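HOLO CASE FILE
Compound: iron/sulfur cluster
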Amino acid sequence: MSQNIRICRWAKLFSGKNGYFAVFHSLNLEVVFLEQKFREMIELLFLGTTLDFLTRKFEKLAEIAEVIAELSRCGLVVPVENDDLTLLDEKRKIHVLPPGLETLYLIVADDCNLACDYCFILNNMPENYRSRRMSFTTAKVAIDMYFRNLVRNPLGYEKLRKTIYFYGGEPLLNFRLIKQVVEYLEHQYKDQISEMGEKFRMSIVTNGTLISKEIAQFVAARGNFDIAISLDGQEESHNKKRPFINGKGSFEKAIRGLEILKQEGKKEISLSCTIADHNIDELPSLLDLHRKYGFASINLNPLVDTAKDPVSKKYMWKVSKRMIEYFTLAREEGVYEDRMMRKTKSFVEKKIHAYDCQALGAQLVCSPDGQLGVCHEGTGIKQFFFATVDKDFDFHKNTVIAEWKQRTPLNMPQCYDCPALGICGGGCAYGSWLRNGSIWSVDDRFCVHSRTTLEWLVWDLFSRL
Ligand code: SF4
Ligand code: SF4
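Model generated. C-alpha cells follow.
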C-alpha cells in the first residue's frame, strides 16, 4: 500500500522561468526546479495524495517516482501525518541561542560636522538635544565592562569575532579620546588582544573629512583597526546629501581623507554608501571609485526609519532591485556587498540566517554620557537603554538583551509562512518598534528586501545549472 504524502508547510513555490518553476524549503533552504508539466502534480501534493495515485494519474511522466524521491530527500514532501512544527523546533534549538556579547559601540561624539538630512542618529534626537562627547573616564569603565563580559559569553568567547566600534555622529570629532582608548586597550588588555588575534577588531565609520596625517598614521599602524569612509557615489550625488553644516559639499574633503590614509599605508579601507533618491540609480558608479581606490569592501545601507521620516515600501522595492543589480555587476569584479552576501551565503550554504543585526543579543551600545543600550539608533531618546555604565554590568543576565535575542523570524509566527523565513534574519527591531510600537512586529520595510533577494537567489542558481 502506498503511503499518504503531502507537500510540507515550509515548501514555497516560485513560478515561471523558461518552462520551469521552483519548490523551495524555507527552513532546509533546499530548492528543486521542476518543469511546468509537474505543476499539477504539485497542486495535488498540496491536498495530500499517494505515489501510486500520482503514478497512475500521470502515467506519461516517467520520472515521477524520481521527482517525489528528490522532493522527499529535501524535506519538501512528507508523510501526511508529519508534524511540520517539529522541524521549526529543531532549527530553533540550533540557531536561537542565549545572548553572547561580541560588539561594543562607543558613541564617542553624537554631533557631526556634516548635515546629512538622512542621518538616523541626528533624526532621532529629541528637540533641544545638546550634543555630547564621551569622556575617557566613561570609555575606560565601558572597556573594562566589555572585557569582563566577553569571557562570560556562553557561546564561546574564543570562537567569535569581537569588535569595538568608535561611532558617532562623527567619531573623529573626538579623536583624542579614540587615541586614549586604543592606547589603554593596548596597554591594559595586551595579552587578551594578542590571544584573540584576528578575532579582535577595532573599527570606525567616518565621513572622512577630518582625516589628518596624524589620524591616518595612527590607523595605518594598526592591522586590527578597520576604517570605513562614507561615500555616496561620485561628487555630484555625494554632495547633494552630504554637505558640511555651511552647505558646501564634502566629497573633496572625504576623498582627501581617503588619499591621506592611502599615502600613510592603510591598505584595507572600506566604503559605506547610504542609498537615497540622490544616488539610487547610480550605484554602479561605486565600482568606478573601487577601481581607483581598491576598497576592502563596499557596504550599501538602505535608509532606516527615523522618528521624523519613515521609509516607504516604494523606496524599498526600488532599493532592493538596485541592490540586486549592483550585486550582480560587482561580483564580476570580485566585490561582494555585505548585506546581500549574508543572505547569499545562507542560501548557498543552506544554513539559516537567524539574525541580521548584532543588536539582537550580541551588541552593547554606550552613549557619550555613559548609558548602556542595545541599539545606537535609540541613543538620543535613550530608548532601549537600561543602565549606567559600570564594570560589573552583566550583559548575559540583562532582560532587555535577552528579549532582543529572542527576536528572530524563527520565533515570530507572522514569519512562519514567509518564503524568506530561513534567510531573512528579521531586519531592524528598532524600526519595528518605531513603526508599530513593538520589536515583535515585522519590519515590513525590510521584508521587501529579503523576499526580493530570495527570489533573485533562486533564479540566479537556476541560471547557473
Ligand atoms: S536594531 Fe535596527 S537600527 Fe538598531 S542596530 Fe539593528 S538594524 Fe541598526
Ligand atoms: S521579517 Fe518579513 S521577510 Fe523576514 S521572515 Fe518575517 S515576514 Fe519574511
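CASE NOTES: The longest helix spans residues 444-464. The domain at 95-406 is CATH 3.20.20.70 (TIM Barrel).
CLOSED: yes
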